[in-house]
Write a structure and sequence with these properties.
Layout: E1 2-6, E2 9-11, E3 33-35, H1 37-53, E4 56-63, H2 68-76, E5 81-86, H3 94-112, E6 117-121, H4 132-140, E7 144-148, E8 150-154, E9 157-164, E10 167-174, E11 177-181, H5 193-201, E12 204-207, H6 241-250
Parallel strand pairs: 1-4, 1-6, 4-5, 5-12, 6-11, 7-11
Antiparallel strand pairs: 2-3, 8-9, 9-10
Helix pairs in contact: 2-5, 3-4
Length: 254
């Protein structure tokens, strides 16, 4: 079995986002970066499938040279190989991103055989576009199911389960197929120290992708308006008790 897992490098969740002066990109000088959470689960699922069935797993991302750190994190938990589609760090729209990934998949499969499953996150935590997986499936002419919470692979078929309000939808896809997963499909493991040391010694294959025009263009970024927070000191010690009771009555708790 061969599995390709797609990840994206994003600013660490919870970090304070600051824009550059022209409002066209994020000021990354003081930001940490991680793998997008849904894609962490995709990496874990790829490792589990190879552990259960044998074969090879490959992790791929499109991003700046520093994105190699996130690829090494994936190798540290058990992914076999890593491929970086190296860019200058500028923003790539879903059209250009999926086209570059499709080109890379064709080259990787020509060299090593078809990927039975291509795994990705349902959406990235930064842009939340939900597009790359579907666009990739169209470009490669492969079946896809998105937003799944359980996956089994065997006998040339992938069985995927998606949660819905009144139960679950179950899909059977002939391989090769593309699947995007949601958080909760598994609990991603943490890289161990020996795993990080092994990953540090592995090479990251680097490819300079062709950027294809034709997708949406970025005009500017805008941060959401921050909600104002007010703090009222009700008092200190036992003296504050009457005010606390009055406030609870105002809120309808008492």
């Amino acid at each position: 079995m061969r599995i390709l897992v797609l990840v994206k490098r994003i600013p660490a969740t919870g970090g304070r986002i600051v824009l550059t002066e022209d409002a066209r990109s994020i000021d990354t000088r003081f930001l940490g970066f991680v793998v997008s959470p849904h894609e962490e689960c995709a990496v874990e699922e790829a490792v589990r499938l190879i552990e259960a069935n044998g074969g090879e797993s490959v992790v791929l991302t499109l991003g700046p040279p520093e994105a190699a750190d996130q690829l090494r994190d994936a190798m540290a938990i058990g992914v076999d190989r890593a491929v970086l589609l190296e860019t200058d760090g500028s923003d790539w729209d879903p059209y250009a991103t999926s086209a570059a990934i499709a080109d890379a998949v064709r080259d990787l499969e020509a060299a090593g055989g078809s990927f039975d499953v291509i795994l990705g996150g349902n959406e990235s935590a930064d842009s939340g576009g939900y597009q790359v997986g579907v666009r990739l499936a169209v470009a490669l002419d492969r079946p896809i199911v998105t937003g799944i919470k359980a996956l089994e692979v065997g006998d040339g078929v992938a069985t995927a389960r998606r949660q819905v309000p009144d139960g679950a939808d179950v899909f059977e896809l002939p391989l090769p197929a593309i699947v995007t997963v949601r958080e909760g499909i598994n609990l991603p493991r943490y890289p161990s120290v020996p795993g990080r040391l092994r990953a540090k010694k592995k090479e990251v294959e680097r490819i300079v992708p062709e950027r294809r025009p034709g997708g949406p263009t970025l005009e500017r970024l805008q941060l959401p308006v921050e909600k104002e927070q007010h703090v009222e000191i009700l008092g200190t010690g036992p003296e504050a008790a009457p005010r606390v009771v009055a406030l609870l009555r105002e809120l309808g708790v008492l």
